[in-house]
Amino acid sequence: MARHDLSAPLILSLGDPAGVGPELIAAAWAAREAEGLPAFAVVGDARCLEQAATTRGIHIVTREIAAAAQASEVFSAALPVIPLLRCAHTPGTPGSAGASAALLSLEEATRLVRENEGSALVTAPVSKHELVQVGFGFPGQTEFLAERCGIAWQETVMMLAGPSLRTVPLTIHCALADVPGKLSAELIVSRAQVTANALQRDFGIPQPRLAIAGLNPHAGENGAFGDEEARIIEPAIKRLLDDGFDVSGPHAADALFAPHKRGSYDAALCMYHDQALVPIKALDFDQGVNCTLGLPIIRTSPDHGTAFDIAGKNIADPGALIAAIRLAGEMAVRRAHG
Closest Cα to residue 235, out of 192, 174, 288? Predict the structure, then answer.
């Protein structure tokens, strides 16, 4: 993807400075030519990024810029940084100062993209536990972004995208025992509609094919192992088919992700967290991207956390962040030219 295809740079939030985010951002910029990455700017602390690069044994040049528009001019020679407050960089040692810096970076990065100073938002990993300690009142970054964009978080969809597979968990962070009670035909229909629309608009797939997984083993085996398929999932599929969507299912989840099946759909809608995340992490762990669908802005993130335990040890793989940057740029180009 040519960098001039973007009218504005991507905006990256710093993430928790005690995690792997800063070092992976530095590694991504260092690999910008080899990976063909579009121009991006980081909202945060240049010194933190330079120190993080040093822990990986790489040299980077940073340049503070006054406006996001300047990023494209300097990107080839220096990592553009939109400066906020200085933050201490102690890999593997999270605290309130780092969490505050992460929150300020997320807030400003979101504002820049909402006001069209950036083409898309890429968020580095944060610690929900640490953010709560500094007054963050949201379950996660997705809910924060939805609120800042003026929509209900229930209207957004998490999609995990990798080279081999795209999955959508319909229920996310809840106990497995609570999943059946949270499922409804309305939930499946609304999430499928958002997913199909995003695959068309942002992924360039004219007629998206959605595979919908069953909840129970063997998709219920005709009611032998549960009635959720007949009572909830099949009526949802019928409604989607009646509305002209290309959907199939309910599929037995144990076979849905086999190589010969993955080519038959563009995204798999899964009933719970691990049903969606286990296959994507097994197949594409170092290239998995978390995309938030349904927002008026584009947002991607690497599909991993802060990894405090390996921060600063030159172990973390930048592949998922590089993939998130690349995908955000591709989505921005499609949306701009759509």
Answer: 192
